[in-house]
Amino acid sequence: xxxxxxxxxxxxxxxxxxxxxxxxxxxxxxxxxxxxxxxxxxxxxxxxxxxxxxxxxxxxxxxxxxxxxxxxxxxxxxxxxxxxxxxxxxxxxxxxxxxxxxxxxxxxxxxxxxxxxxxxxxxxxxxxxxxxxxxxxxxxxxxxxxxxxxxxxxxxxxxxxxxxxxxxxxxxxxxxxxxxxxxxxxxxxxxxxxxxxxxxxxxxxxxxxxxxxxxxxxxxxxxxxxxxxxxxxxxxxxxxxxxxxxxxxxx
Length: 251
What we know:
Elements: E1 2-7, H1 10-28, H2 34-51, H3 56-72, H4 82-100, H5 114-123, H6 135-141, H7 145-156, H8 160-175, E2 180-184, E3 188-192, E4 201-206, E5 213-218, E6 222-230, E7 236-238, E8 243-250
């Protein structure tokens, strides 16, 4: 099954973008080739760009505090495993403390590294990191893989509190949604959302054998899914066939 996720607000959209970038960084870092480490650094710079939003750290801290308060209300509930509950609350508290103790925005210490910032200013230029443009970076790429890996890991560690916090928040958000089987009639599906409840994320799973691509739109009142198929002209065309998929709404 292919999983598609659709965020209902800018805050969750930012969390998903950062999660995507952190996953790419984790994938690239263990590799040995200088090209892989080049794109690991490019990914690190992209994380810095996304994390530069002024209210991001504040949003993450508020979400951690809100979830911690909600879970604390389940203490002494006989139907809840208290050991598991305390473990989750402890993880949230650890994330809150680590992120709160970081000065300034996430990744701010990296902005004080002149070598990294000179590289950052060149990566957006096509071919801007050639050896004749950045000889110091060219020399660094010729160091052994472990030296490069340790350096990138050290720089990326400044983002670790943010990465762990977002990982926990998105896991709790995803766990809040109960999947259900639905049917798109003639390639179209619409569902009204209950008033008084705010959803943050839609999750859709569809069988890749159907060769269908969902186009999702939504607001606080309604969600809509239109199933598309890529034609021989490489353009997307609306499907008119009935198709089933799995849908979950996460608050």
